[in-house]
Amino acid sequence: MGKRKSLIKIKPKKYKTGEIVKVSFMVMHPMDTGMRKNKKTGKIVPAHYINEVKFMFNGKVFTTMKTWESLSTNPVFTVNFKVPGKGKITVSYTDNTGESQEKSKKIKPKG
Amino acid sequence: MQRRSFLRGLGLVAVASTVSTPTMLLAAPKGPNELNIDLAVKAITGAKAVVKSEKVHMKAPEIAENGAVVPVTVTVDSPMTDDDYIKAIHIFATKNSNVRCADVMLTPMNGIAMFATRVKLGKSQEIMALVETSKGEFLSTSQSVKVTIGGCG
Lengths: 111, 153
Known about the structure:
The structure holds two protein chains of two kinds.
Chain A: E1 6-11, E2 20-27, E3 50-57, E4 60-67, E5 76-82, E6 87-95, E7 100-107
Antiparallel strand pairs in A: 1-2, 2-5, 3-4, 3-6, 6-7
Chain B: H1 2-27, H2 37-45, E1 50-52, E2 56-59, E3 63-66, E4 70-76, E5 86-93, E6 100-105, E7 113-119, E8 125-133, E9 138-149
Parallel strand pairs in B: 1-9, 3-9
Antiparallel strand pairs in B: 2-4, 4-7, 5-6, 5-8, 8-9
Protein backbone atom coordinates (compact mmCIF):
# COMPACT_ATOMS: atom_id res chain seq x y z
CA MET A 1 0.00 0.00 0.00
CA GLY A 2 1.30 3.38 -0.95
CA LYS A 3 1.38 6.36 1.27
CA ARG A 4 -2.06 7.54 2.31
CA LYS A 5 -2.97 11.17 1.98
CA SER A 6 -3.22 12.88 5.32
CA LEU A 7 -3.48 16.42 6.56
CA ILE A 8 -3.11 18.36 9.79
CA LYS A 9 -5.19 21.50 10.14
CA ILE A 10 -4.85 24.10 12.86
CA LYS A 11 -7.67 26.53 13.58
CA PRO A 12 -7.54 29.52 13.84
CA LYS A 13 -4.61 30.15 11.50
CA LYS A 14 -3.08 32.92 13.64
CA TYR A 15 -2.47 32.22 17.30
CA LYS A 16 -0.29 33.27 20.21
CA THR A 17 1.59 31.29 22.85
CA GLY A 18 -0.83 30.12 25.53
CA GLU A 19 -3.86 30.21 23.28
CA ILE A 20 -6.01 27.15 22.72
CA VAL A 21 -6.28 25.96 19.12
CA LYS A 22 -8.12 23.14 17.40
CA VAL A 23 -5.90 20.51 15.82
CA SER A 24 -7.56 18.22 13.28
CA PHE A 25 -6.01 15.24 11.62
CA MET A 26 -7.57 13.84 8.47
CA VAL A 27 -6.50 10.70 6.68
CA MET A 28 -7.75 8.98 3.55
CA HIS A 29 -8.50 5.52 4.90
CA PRO A 30 -11.19 2.98 3.82
CA MET A 31 -12.17 1.99 7.44
CA ASP A 32 -13.72 -1.29 6.24
CA THR A 33 -15.89 -3.01 8.84
CA GLY A 34 -15.43 -6.56 7.58
CA MET A 35 -19.15 -6.85 6.81
CA ARG A 36 -19.40 -5.15 3.44
CA LYS A 37 -19.38 -7.23 0.24
CA ASN A 38 -17.52 -6.29 -2.89
CA LYS A 39 -20.35 -5.94 -5.42
CA LYS A 40 -18.28 -7.19 -8.39
CA THR A 41 -16.68 -10.28 -6.88
CA GLY A 42 -19.25 -11.02 -4.13
CA LYS A 43 -16.48 -11.55 -1.60
CA ILE A 44 -16.46 -9.96 1.82
CA VAL A 45 -14.01 -7.10 2.12
CA PRO A 46 -11.82 -7.87 5.16
CA ALA A 47 -11.86 -5.48 8.11
CA HIS A 48 -9.33 -2.70 7.73
CA TYR A 49 -9.56 0.13 10.20
CA ILE A 50 -7.42 2.47 12.26
CA ASN A 51 -6.60 1.14 15.72
CA GLU A 52 -4.63 3.85 17.37
CA VAL A 53 -3.92 7.53 16.84
CA LYS A 54 -1.30 9.52 18.75
CA PHE A 55 -0.92 13.27 18.88
CA MET A 56 2.55 14.45 19.90
CA PHE A 57 4.15 17.82 20.49
CA ASN A 58 7.95 17.78 20.22
CA GLY A 59 7.90 14.03 20.85
CA LYS A 60 5.68 14.26 23.96
CA VAL A 61 2.32 12.53 23.61
CA PHE A 62 -0.63 14.71 24.59
CA THR A 63 -3.56 12.68 23.28
CA THR A 64 -3.94 8.99 22.47
CA MET A 65 -6.96 7.41 20.86
CA LYS A 66 -8.12 3.85 20.47
CA THR A 67 -10.55 3.59 17.60
CA TRP A 68 -12.72 0.93 16.03
CA GLU A 69 -14.44 0.33 12.70
CA SER A 70 -17.51 2.41 13.64
CA LEU A 71 -15.73 5.57 12.51
CA SER A 72 -16.52 6.88 9.06
CA THR A 73 -14.46 6.40 5.93
CA ASN A 74 -11.70 9.03 5.68
CA PRO A 75 -11.99 9.87 9.37
CA VAL A 76 -11.27 13.21 11.03
CA PHE A 77 -9.96 13.50 14.58
CA THR A 78 -10.16 16.90 16.24
CA VAL A 79 -8.82 17.84 19.67
CA ASN A 80 -7.89 21.06 21.41
CA PHE A 81 -4.33 21.99 22.20
CA LYS A 82 -2.84 24.76 24.33
CA VAL A 83 0.14 26.14 22.43
CA PRO A 84 3.16 26.17 24.76
CA GLY A 85 5.53 27.72 22.21
CA LYS A 86 7.39 26.94 19.02
CA GLY A 87 7.60 23.34 18.00
CA LYS A 88 6.26 20.53 15.87
CA ILE A 89 3.00 18.61 16.10
CA THR A 90 3.26 15.01 14.94
CA VAL A 91 0.31 12.69 14.46
CA SER A 92 0.86 8.99 13.93
CA TYR A 93 -1.63 6.21 13.36
CA THR A 94 -1.60 2.41 13.25
CA ASP A 95 -4.26 0.20 11.69
CA ASN A 96 -5.28 -3.40 12.28
CA THR A 97 -3.11 -4.69 9.42
CA GLY A 98 -0.02 -3.15 11.03
CA GLU A 99 0.25 -0.26 8.63
CA SER A 100 1.47 2.93 10.28
CA GLN A 101 2.21 6.42 9.17
CA GLU A 102 3.21 9.82 10.53
CA LYS A 103 2.50 13.39 9.61
CA SER A 104 3.90 16.52 11.19
CA LYS A 105 3.33 20.23 11.09
CA LYS A 106 5.41 23.09 12.51
CA ILE A 107 3.86 25.43 15.04
CA LYS A 108 4.86 29.07 14.94
CA PRO A 109 2.93 31.21 17.44
CA LYS A 110 3.06 34.94 16.83
CA GLY A 111 3.80 36.88 20.00
CA MET B 1 -1.57 -49.38 0.56
CA GLN B 2 -0.29 -45.88 0.68
CA ARG B 3 -3.38 -44.56 -1.00
CA ARG B 4 -5.64 -46.41 1.42
CA SER B 5 -3.91 -44.96 4.46
CA PHE B 6 -3.98 -41.54 2.89
CA LEU B 7 -7.76 -41.75 2.37
CA ARG B 8 -8.28 -42.95 5.93
CA GLY B 9 -6.27 -39.97 7.13
CA LEU B 10 -8.46 -37.64 5.09
CA GLY B 11 -11.60 -39.10 6.64
CA LEU B 12 -10.22 -38.63 10.12
CA VAL B 13 -9.39 -35.00 9.38
CA ALA B 14 -12.88 -34.38 8.01
CA VAL B 15 -14.50 -35.87 11.12
CA ALA B 16 -12.21 -33.88 13.37
CA SER B 17 -12.99 -30.62 11.60
CA THR B 18 -16.76 -31.09 11.67
CA VAL B 19 -16.66 -31.89 15.36
CA SER B 20 -14.25 -29.17 16.36
CA THR B 21 -15.60 -26.11 14.51
CA PRO B 22 -18.92 -25.68 16.33
CA THR B 23 -17.35 -26.20 19.74
CA MET B 24 -14.60 -23.72 18.87
CA LEU B 25 -17.17 -21.14 17.85
CA LEU B 26 -18.99 -21.56 21.14
CA ALA B 27 -15.82 -21.46 23.17
CA ALA B 28 -14.33 -18.41 21.44
CA PRO B 29 -14.05 -15.63 24.03
CA LYS B 30 -15.98 -12.48 23.29
CA GLY B 31 -13.59 -9.60 22.79
CA PRO B 32 -14.42 -6.07 23.82
CA ASN B 33 -15.53 -5.47 20.23
CA GLU B 34 -18.45 -7.88 20.41
CA LEU B 35 -19.94 -6.75 23.70
CA ASN B 36 -23.31 -5.07 23.86
CA ILE B 37 -23.58 -1.55 25.21
CA ASP B 38 -24.14 -2.44 28.87
CA LEU B 39 -21.21 -4.84 28.99
CA ALA B 40 -18.96 -2.44 27.09
CA VAL B 41 -19.70 0.33 29.59
CA LYS B 42 -19.13 -2.08 32.48
CA ALA B 43 -15.79 -3.15 31.01
CA ILE B 44 -14.63 0.46 31.16
CA THR B 45 -16.15 1.62 34.45
CA GLY B 46 -15.60 -1.60 36.39
CA ALA B 47 -19.21 -1.56 37.73
CA LYS B 48 -18.84 2.00 39.09
CA ALA B 49 -21.88 4.24 38.96
CA VAL B 50 -22.33 6.37 35.87
CA VAL B 51 -23.94 9.78 36.43
CA LYS B 52 -25.83 11.61 33.71
CA SER B 53 -24.32 15.05 33.80
CA GLU B 54 -24.99 18.41 32.23
CA LYS B 55 -21.27 19.09 32.18
CA VAL B 56 -20.97 16.89 29.14
CA HIS B 57 -22.24 18.42 25.92
CA MET B 58 -22.77 16.44 22.76
CA LYS B 59 -23.39 17.93 19.38
CA ALA B 60 -24.77 15.60 16.72
CA PRO B 61 -27.48 16.04 14.08
CA GLU B 62 -30.99 14.95 15.09
CA ILE B 63 -31.66 13.63 11.62
CA ALA B 64 -28.75 12.28 9.61
CA GLU B 65 -29.56 11.72 5.97
CA ASN B 66 -26.51 9.58 5.39
CA GLY B 67 -25.53 7.21 8.17
CA ALA B 68 -22.04 6.73 6.71
CA VAL B 69 -20.86 10.14 7.86
CA VAL B 70 -22.34 11.56 11.07
CA PRO B 71 -20.33 14.33 12.72
CA VAL B 72 -20.17 14.09 16.51
CA THR B 73 -18.60 16.60 18.90
CA VAL B 74 -18.23 16.02 22.63
CA THR B 75 -17.21 18.87 24.93
CA VAL B 76 -16.80 18.66 28.71
CA ASP B 77 -16.73 21.58 31.13
CA SER B 78 -13.49 21.15 33.03
CA PRO B 79 -10.67 23.45 34.15
CA MET B 80 -8.11 20.98 32.67
CA THR B 81 -5.49 21.71 35.32
CA ASP B 82 -2.93 19.19 36.54
CA ASP B 83 -5.09 17.97 39.43
CA ASP B 84 -8.54 18.28 37.87
CA TYR B 85 -8.85 17.23 34.28
CA ILE B 86 -10.75 14.90 31.99
CA LYS B 87 -8.91 11.65 31.58
CA ALA B 88 -10.87 9.99 28.81
CA ILE B 89 -13.83 10.40 26.50
CA HIS B 90 -15.46 7.24 25.16
CA ILE B 91 -17.97 7.35 22.32
CA PHE B 92 -20.48 4.56 21.71
CA ALA B 93 -23.01 3.95 18.96
CA THR B 94 -25.49 1.89 20.95
CA LYS B 95 -26.96 -0.23 18.13
CA ASN B 96 -24.00 -0.78 15.82
CA SER B 97 -22.62 -4.32 15.67
CA ASN B 98 -19.53 -2.92 17.33
CA VAL B 99 -20.72 -0.36 19.84
CA ARG B 100 -17.33 1.18 20.55
CA CYS B 101 -16.34 4.05 18.28
CA ALA B 102 -13.40 5.73 19.97
CA ASP B 103 -11.62 6.04 23.31
CA VAL B 104 -9.75 9.31 23.64
CA MET B 105 -7.18 9.75 26.39
CA LEU B 106 -6.65 13.42 27.14
CA THR B 107 -4.02 15.26 29.20
CA PRO B 108 -3.94 18.76 30.74
CA MET B 109 -1.95 19.86 27.67
CA ASN B 110 -5.22 19.89 25.69
CA GLY B 111 -6.56 23.04 27.39
CA ILE B 112 -10.20 22.22 26.65
CA ALA B 113 -11.70 18.74 26.87
CA MET B 114 -13.13 18.39 23.37
CA PHE B 115 -13.18 15.65 20.80
CA ALA B 116 -14.78 15.70 17.38
CA THR B 117 -14.97 12.97 14.78
CA ARG B 118 -17.27 11.41 12.22
CA VAL B 119 -18.96 8.07 12.87
CA LYS B 120 -20.86 5.44 10.87
CA LEU B 121 -24.35 4.49 12.04
CA GLY B 122 -26.14 1.38 10.80
CA LYS B 123 -29.63 2.56 11.79
CA SER B 124 -31.43 5.13 13.94
CA GLN B 125 -29.99 4.92 17.42
CA GLU B 126 -28.54 6.75 20.40
CA ILE B 127 -24.98 7.97 20.52
CA MET B 128 -23.53 7.89 24.00
CA ALA B 129 -20.52 9.63 25.47
CA LEU B 130 -18.89 8.34 28.64
CA VAL B 131 -16.40 10.65 30.33
CA GLU B 132 -13.86 9.69 32.97
CA THR B 133 -12.49 12.45 35.19
CA SER B 134 -9.11 12.40 36.92
CA LYS B 135 -10.93 11.87 40.24
CA GLY B 136 -12.32 8.57 38.99
CA GLU B 137 -15.89 9.72 38.38
CA PHE B 138 -17.88 8.68 35.34
CA LEU B 139 -20.21 11.12 33.61
CA SER B 140 -22.33 10.44 30.57
CA THR B 141 -24.71 11.95 28.08
CA SER B 142 -26.52 10.63 25.04
CA GLN B 143 -28.42 11.85 22.05
CA SER B 144 -30.59 10.00 19.58
CA VAL B 145 -29.94 10.33 15.87
CA LYS B 146 -32.41 9.38 13.16
CA VAL B 147 -30.76 7.79 10.16
CA THR B 148 -32.56 7.65 6.82
CA ILE B 149 -29.92 5.63 4.95
CA GLY B 150 -27.83 3.16 6.96
CA GLY B 151 -24.08 3.53 6.78
CA CYS B 152 -22.87 -0.01 7.38
CA GLY B 153 -22.79 -2.76 4.79
